[in-house]
Amino acid sequence: MHIDVSKMITSLNQRIAKLTARNRSGRPFRRFLSSLAALGAVSLNSSGCAEADNDGYDAELKGGREEERTFSKESALLLESIKEKGVRNEKVLRALASVPRHRFVDESFKQNSYDDNPLPIGQGQTISQPFIVAYMTDALNLQGDERVLEIGTGSGYQAAVLSRLVKDVYSIEIIPELAARAKTALTACGIDNVHQKVGDGYKGWSEEAPFDAVIVTAAPPTIPDKLIEQLKIGGILVVPVGENGEVQWLLKLVKNADGSVSKQTLIPVRFVPMIPAASDRK
Ligand code: SAH
Description:
about 20% strand, Rossmann fold, alpha/beta, two-stranded antiparallel sheet
């Protein structure tokens, strides 16, 4: 997604003011914490993500634990805001609660990990806004035993969230450096059901097809044919479609038994454009 820095800072400040006010009044936050506890949400303290292994390991580990504590409060507030914005699927919320987003963002943006904003991850790309991650995940109607294809691994965060909800995630990234960094973050979180490939998402992953669901996290100008082809009958494809710089719409497609697709237009979104494969560039 695109970043408008001045807008982002204004919205950050507004959000901080709102959260501070809410924290002071205490009630909604406590109510949300108890509802999360009722859900059995996994706390970030038990996320299982390894700390960097180096000479200052003890200090680092201690700092890491403090950090997880700080972030677990911020994560709870973020989940509350996602719920307020309309995603109420408990399984999806629990999956988000169990993935430490700060492990997937650049060090320099760590403090903003639990703001409901996209953040830069290098190479001109971004980690998606948490609400959008929750919304798209919810739209896939996952039951637990699916094999899901993701286009645009990026930071690996969306793949990590999906990994908590399905059997296997197959994720394709066109920029090798991002794929490598995502792999490190996913491994550090002990996630072993995300299978990665560096390549062109327009082609899908024919060796592993068909998929129960496909999620595209960069915007193509039109729906890529191959991704519909690689979808099972009854499968769902969620994709933001639109030209770069124009409004993109999040579409949900269901593949019918006769091979046709039913299309539903969900919400307007702003994603980074899907990069055409080198061979297709003009
Ligand atoms: N799902 C990611 C969001 C990343 S942004 C996350 O959770 O962080 C979109 C990603 O799509 C970028 O990393 C970009 O490099 C990748 N991308 C763009 N065009 C692509 C293509 N044709 N094939 C595969 N990945 C692509």
